[in-house]
């Protein structure tokens, strides 16, 4: 099975179980993404979920996101009406980990 699929499935299982990943690990963004983003953007960032298709979610596995920084991500999430449900769940401290995971999905550097 492809690594991205395994990571995505593992993340969804962790998110559903309520278990948190250890702080400071590269996986922080994986769990945050699974809990807050994967419902629409998909575990691999392809936006291939039913909700993602219905909302015309952006594919985050596109190379254009490979240089994403936390401040840009924060602006996108807080400034887009489709992200209202996520805005209150993601703290300022979470954006760096989320940005790193999205960079990884897009083929860029995770850290």
Shape: globular
Mean pLDDT: 82
Helical residue percent?
Answer: 40-55%
Distance between the first and last residues' Cα: 24 Å
Q: Radius of gyration from the CA trace?
A: 13 Å
Strand content: under 5%
Which H/E pattern describes the elements? HHHHHHH
Give the total of domains.
1
Major sheet summary line: none
Structural class: mainly alpha
Count of DSSP H/I helices: 7
Count of β-strands? 0
Unreliable stretches, pLDDT < 50, 5 or more residues? 10-27
Question: What do you see in this structure?
Answer:
The chain contains 7 helices and no strands. It is mainly alpha-helical and 111 residues long. Helix content is 54%, strand content 0%.
Short recap of the structure:
This protein has 111 residues and is mainly alpha-helical. Helix content is 54%, strand content 0%.
């Amino acid at each position: 099975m492809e690594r991205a699929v395994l990571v995505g499935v593992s993340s969804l299982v962790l998110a559903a179980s309520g278990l948190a990943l250890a702080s400071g690990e590269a996986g922080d963004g994986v769990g945050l993404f699974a809990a807050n983003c994967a419902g629409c953007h998909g575990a691999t960032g392809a936006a291939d979920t039913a909700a993602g298709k219905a909302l015309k979610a952006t594919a985050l596995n596109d190379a254009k996101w490979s240089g994403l920084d936390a401040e840009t991500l924060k602006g996108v999430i807080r400034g887009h009406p489709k992200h209202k449900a996520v805005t209150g769940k993601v703290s300022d401290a979470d954006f760096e980990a989320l940005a790193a995971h999205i960079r990884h999905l897009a083929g860029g550097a995770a850290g």
